[in-house]
């Protein structure tokens, strides 16, 4: 399968990329290297340096690589910073997730996943952005099924 791994130069993403390559998948990594390392990306994967905030570039990537599946790990991940700059984390992580969903829906990527939040019942915890993002994925799945037949199901 052609798989897009966002944040694939990061800690979890890079290990995932290596495992996907071992399993014979065709992997594209999108990472802005804000936190990750180019050298951590498996040499068998295609690497695209870019930012999820750039929707037009994201659309180009989807057109060129036509991913069938997506693993979404790209986000601000520093816990201390998430407490000091909550709107940076909430804003970027939610908006960028929406960008990814939008590009995926437009280009028919059918399967996706993202790291789930741990403490959904505790408002104000560092995972609020992921909780919101999960809800949005749910809405997008419904929208894709009912309003956007060619997008298929995302989730
Ligand atoms: N590391 C852990 O122990 C752990 C545990 C549970 C959950 N998680 C979650 O898993 C996910 C990945 O965690 P990690 O530890 O690999 O983090 P990480 O910081 O090592 O990796 C995140 C990657 O995303 C990239 N990135 C950030 N913003 C981007 C953007 N706008 N566009 C493109 N790339 C961008 C960074 O450069 C980095 O390579 C996060 O959602 C994190 O909260 C991590």
| CA-CA gap between termini | 16 Å
Poorly predicted residue ranges: 145-155
Discrete helix count: 5
Which ligands occur here? nicotinamide-adenine-dinucleotide
The fraction of residues assigned to DSSP E strands is 5-15%
Globally, the shape reads globular
**Largest sheet geometry:** 5 strands, parallel
* Structural class determined from secondary elements: alpha/beta
Biggest sheet strand line-up? 3-2-1-4-5
The total beta strand count reads 5
Radius of gyration equals 15 Å
Please, could you describe this protein's structure?
The protein has 155 residues and is an alpha/beta fold. Helices cover 46% and strands 15% of the residues. It has 5 helices and 5 strands, in the order βαββαβααβα. It has helices at 11-22, 55-65, 79-84, 86-107, 128-147, and strands at residues 2-6, 26-31, 46-49, 69-72, 111-114. It has a 5-stranded parallel beta sheet, covered by helices on one side. Helix 2 (55-65) runs parallel beside helix 4 and helix 4 (86-107) packs parallel to helix 5 (128-147). It is globular and about 40 Å long. The protein starts with a strand and ends in an 8-residue tail after the last helix. The model is unreliable at 145-155 (pLDDT under 50). The site of nicotinamide-adenine-dinucleotide has 23 residues, from helix 1 and strand 2.
